[in-house]
Fold this protein.
Amino acid sequence: MVEKRPGKLPSLLLIILFAALSVIALFPLFALFLASVKPASELFRFGLNVRLDFDVMTWANYKAIFSGKGGSQNFFDWYRNSLVITAVFTFLCLFLSSMVGYGLAMYRFKGRTLVFTLVLAVMMIPVEIIILPLYKLSIDLFIIDSIWGVILPFVVAPLPIFFFRQFAMGLPKDFMDAGRIDGCTEMGIFLRIMVPLMLPAYGAMTILQALFSWNNFLWPVIVLRSTEKFTLPIGLAGLLSPTSNNYEVLLAGSILTILPILLLFLFFQRFFIEGLTVGGVKG
Amino acid sequence: MNAGKQVPNGQRGGGTVKTRTLNGQKLAPYLFILPFILSFLIFFSYPLVNAVLMSFQRVLPGDVAFIGLDNYKRLLNPDFYKALLNSTRYTFWTLLVLIPLPLLLAVFLNAKLMRARNFFRASLFIPALTSIVVAGIIFRLIFSELDGAIMNSFISWFGFDSQKWLLSPSLSMLALVVLATWRWAGINILYFLSALQSIPRELYESADIDGAGTIGKFWKITIPLLRPITIYVFTITIYGGYAMFTESFMLWGSRGSPQNIGLTMVGYIYQQGFQYFDLGFGSTIGITLLGITLLVSMLQLNVLGFFKKED
Amino acid sequence: MRKTGIALTALTLFLTTALTACGGNNNNGTNASSTAAPADTEAATSEAPAAEPTKLTLWTFVQQHADFYNFMAAEWNKGNPDQQIVLDAQNIPYDDMHTRLLLALQSGEGAPDLVDIEQSKFPNYMKGNVQLVELNDIVEPEIPNIVKSRVDIYSKDGKYYGVDLHVGATVMYYNKELMDKAGVNPDDIKLWSDVETLGKTVAEKTGVPFITFEGAGNWSWWPAINQMKSDQVGPNGEITVDDPRNIQAMSFFKKLVDEKIAAVSPGVGHDTPEYKAFMNAGGAAAVFMPFWFMNRFTDEMPDLKGKMIIRPMPAWETGGNRSAGMGGTGLSITNQTKSLEISKKFLAYAKLSKEGNIQVWKQLGMDPIRTEVWSDPAMAESNKFTDYFGTDIFATLTEIKDEIYPVNIRETSPKVFDAVRNEIVPKIFQFGEDPETVIKKAAEALRKDTGQ
């Protein structure tokens, strides 16, 4: 606190600014949470509101989900499937995509621009138009109705490839030569020297790809056919559909879907903050 | 599929001369990009070719026929123009909001004098965690036309009358951009932060010695070093803008919006392909959209000197 | 070096998965669906001897429907020990279920045995070579006992492909409290012209509109023109949106709105949170919606319990129709089923039999298509609907039994409905444009687009 930097006032202003922004960002979710612990009739009486009325608050909506009534008997299957798919997808996706992105950034080779253009093209294909052929293909490849059907087609994802490429562009190339002199293979240089330097990128991408996988819906609902193989968003969306009129389950279920990914985020954001010091010290 | 055969070979010779070659500087880049090449060949080449073919066909169960350019001729209709215009307007506004704002916030969050940064970063990111269904329910209610609804109460503090947000073309565009900002700003902050954190502190320290001010350092060091990530965010925002469908789906549901004020390009594909069961025409719209987004992002990348500098 | 090894192993893992997958394809490309296979084979082999239970897959988009089918499957098993079924009733969200079905039918693989198809989506599945199974042998014998229009909707060229769950008879829901306050007896409102006079009294005495119309939906205009035996689409799919009767009905509604007797519903229509909050707080004295809207009242407008009554709609002229069958979901069998006979038997049991139809009311609170059960004692048993609306629900329904005119749902319907909801109705009700001009212009555009 005895630092000579004139930090106090700007620091306070920043805190006020971010506090205001945080309130705006979190307000809708806070309202959602409040609605989820009240009977649905409250929502219809008063609309979305932030009245703190402890008399009507209840965990009944959450209990309803775990009660196994109304199609939620597979709830734990769905939860487990989602966790497995998200873990496997995120791991493979980060490993493979960072490899490709790194390769595109660090080497000059024939066809590099073409490959990069293809990456962009794959990113920009509207999934809706390839869904029918991809569905037929999944049947022929025997990955229909399995977690591989959900994971494999999109595991080498263009968005993280692009991101890792951009990130790797900023890495010092002289480390590579140093590695070569030490007798590392190119793959060794990547894994031993460069991967640690890209930790902030891995941190950010872990969160984003896990988020993508966790909330992914359009493709899994097509490729998965058995109820017990569904992921959480598919299973819950069925319960949550507006045609079913069960807002109780809907709101409580929404909060429950957010939780795991929130924990993951809180865990990984530390990880990628620490990535900073590694890169910083060496850089 | 041929590319795949290299690997069993490479593995058989594991650790010997062959791995060396495969790992050598000449071949290494191809090894690195191999996952993408395989993924493209296996999962995308056939569907993509198929989608192009479908765009020249009438596709019905047990009844698929080539109809030449008929689908492309049908593109020239008011709904298509409306969808293209809506998507372009949305892309424009998201570019304008979702790049400068997150960049600035990320710089603040990364500043030395920032307190409780983990907490604030988390709270700004949390909206991104919500699924479409959930965010849809919340925002439908927030932008409700009732006087007591959150948005209407908010503007009433400033003396405005209650608005029917989801019926007016300009207000609904505003609603879409607000929703996009709420959901995506945290993600872009995350991108910028990850890049900011790889900028060596020494650079700022040496600038301090040279007597550069905060703003000077921002323009001289931060902005140039954020260039690669800015290009990335720019490109994916263009892509995200043209691919936008879920936000519109969230606000109006699947049955379309009054006078198509929320119709986007992907929404149009969805409507024609799946709701009217016209997969051929849906593909035509999709291929056209792919052409447009590729063209726009290539132009953008060229203007930003993306290819020139590196090759 | 060790790390390199790990990397290569991981890569090989990825490649082998991909490669074996391709290899498998070449070996036996025809019969696929690897993991779902055990269940399917079981179903196929067990059909003939009927010793093992048959597994039937059913897709729907409403959880309550899934619960109903599960209940009916259990009932079926009680009565048919030699033909047991195991029903897998999957509930998938509305749009996704229809998309998934479309992909499965288009690619010839992955469709369920039975599927619930929503009325307005149905014409899509009548395109090309129909991939659903003709049901004439189970439907035709029951035609005298059911509301025939409820199977006509799901037919093409004299072949029936689906059976509806309910009639969806449109009725008036009156807020008795507000009507009493205005001193108007709902039973005196017999004609639409009475709405103009008596409705005005209600609006003036209570200070709230007598009735509301959907501002971007079809549940107000469509039932009203159906009462006049008109429609938005003709029997052969021609565009009849601008039929003079349609324009007359819409102009009349517009007039009621201009005279403040009626209001445009908050939200885009009646099935929205805005409307329900508004109505729940006594926002209007009446509304006409199909029978299935009852559970929106019981579940989402709790404050009106005991205050609402159900009556027939006003007719356009004395002796005219006082209801219209609106909305619906047809249960169909796909041609990919491996258990056709038992699927048909189950469908007939769940949707056409007396037992099934009684359960449609008991489980779902909907008006069953088999009209004889309307007077069954089971319908008078008290439940949450009788608690809410009183015990004369089916008395009202029986009164209008023969006043339900069929609707036309054809291949052009999805486009026409979208144009009505998103173009015609909002322009008139939200932006105050002239009904005749708007309707004629939209009809022209539709004719051009559909080539009709």
User: Anything to note?
Assistant: Confidence is low (pLDDT under 50) at residues 274-283 of chain A. The first helix of chain A runs from residue 8 to 36. Chain A is about 75% helix and 0% strand. Residues 72-282 of chain A form a domain with the MetI-like fold fold (CATH 1.10.3720.10).
